[in-house]
Amino acid sequence: MKKHLLTTFIGMAILFSSCDSTKKATTTNQTAMETNSITGRKWQLVELRGNPVAATINGKVPFIRFQDTDKRYSASAGCNGLGGTFTLSGNGRIKFSQGMSTMMACEHMEIETELKKVMDQVDNFTVNGNTLSLNKARMAPLARFQAIDESATAQLNGTWELDYISGAKIAFEGLFPDKKPGITFNLPETKASGNGSCNNFNVTFTIDGSNIKFNDPAATRMACPGNGEATFFATLKKVSAYSVNGNTLNLIMGDIAIMRFQKK
What is the CATH number of domain 151-263? Predict the structure, then answer.
């Protein structure tokens, strides 16, 4: 009888140990899957406490990025660089520990201030396709992010020739009767070169995901007939985003494509 009880006890101990090991392995695998769902991508902040967030703040895209190797995150809401560590504990639970940040003063800091408060309150997250939500309990999401396809920037590389420009009162052929403007990108270098239909130029730019902003072009000083080149340079300065579809590049202001190029 005692031998039978001992055998039963040992069997139960092995069973419980096996169940515990299975539970730990399941939790570990789940945490690994959750880590993979948010790391390796850059997430653009699009909504904060139910309110939409502008595509750029102080000229910068607000974002967060998670690193798998050391469980650190980096973020910005358009001014200071924010950072710290994050901890995942299964079932979508997440906790942020904020570290040191830069101490710049910027014109618009409301989103940065609120984002820092939100990250202190967040205790779970969800990922639905390309949307990341940071939540508190079962309340409405405190912050929403959209994944940025950074690989798309490589599609810009190469030489592009202008075939449409908006806003001009003169027909395209009248603006550029002899030569169409062109621009050449060689990312990751953030300096482009080209010809404005008369003068050669170089221009630096900032790029973040699908957002792009050109600085003042530096051009040679040949005298050029007409207003085509001046229109080209002035329109380039208005661009805030881009999209590439096959061999067509659109440079966009707001939601409107104001310049269109074809791959050469």
Answer: 2.40.128.270
